[in-house]
Hints:
By secondary structure, this protein is α+β, with helices and mostly antiparallel strands. It has helices at residues 5-44, 91-112, 122-146, 154-160, 176-203, and strands at residues 49-50, 59-61, 66-69, 76-79, 173-174. Helix 1 (5-44) runs antiparallel to helix 2 and helix 1 runs antiparallel to helix 5 (176-203).
Amino acid sequence: MDLLPAQEAAKIYHTNYVRNSRAIGVMWAVFTICFVIITVVVFIQPYWIGDGVDTPQAGYFGLFHYCIGNALTSELVCKGSILDFASIPSPAFRTAMFFVGTSMLLIVGTMVSFSLFFFCNAGNVYKICAWMQLASAALMVMGCMIYPDGWDAPEVKRMCGQKTDKYSLGNCTVRWAYILAIISILDALLLAFLSFTLGNRQDKLLPDEFQVQGAAENP
């Protein structure tokens, strides 16, 4: 039996709805993978703050690794390891490293969760990923807010000058990794919003088939 005109329109709408949802889902997945790369770079790169024109020493600091110029030889002496907490110059840096590292692991977990699309309801998977991305954004906010609390460390003052204090960089400047971390917060929030939207769209998908319920429906 042929479909009714209203059912034909509904079938077309359903087809376009599914196609658009899949296209947006692919875009969301690609942006999530890009976000994973961003968070990994933010975590490992030691360019959160660095020397300026008037700094006593050249150098730069990351979450756990840093390099400061030698006053005699002008060569950079690098220290700090993720496996050696004692080598990280400030408790605030260690705390920030924990928050940013956990944020990175959550986003990596989101990418791993892509495999759940083969076994679980797509709407539920999107919502799980959304909560993980939202938590990642919150942790990144914590890391970015706590990091400047460690700027009063002796090693930072040796590079940036004695006017350096908590939340005051003195003669130093904010470098690109710190700026990228702040941008990544907005990225995570947008991805979480898109993921929630996709999850809700999956819940509202129409049935795949539109069958005539009975001859009584046909005038």
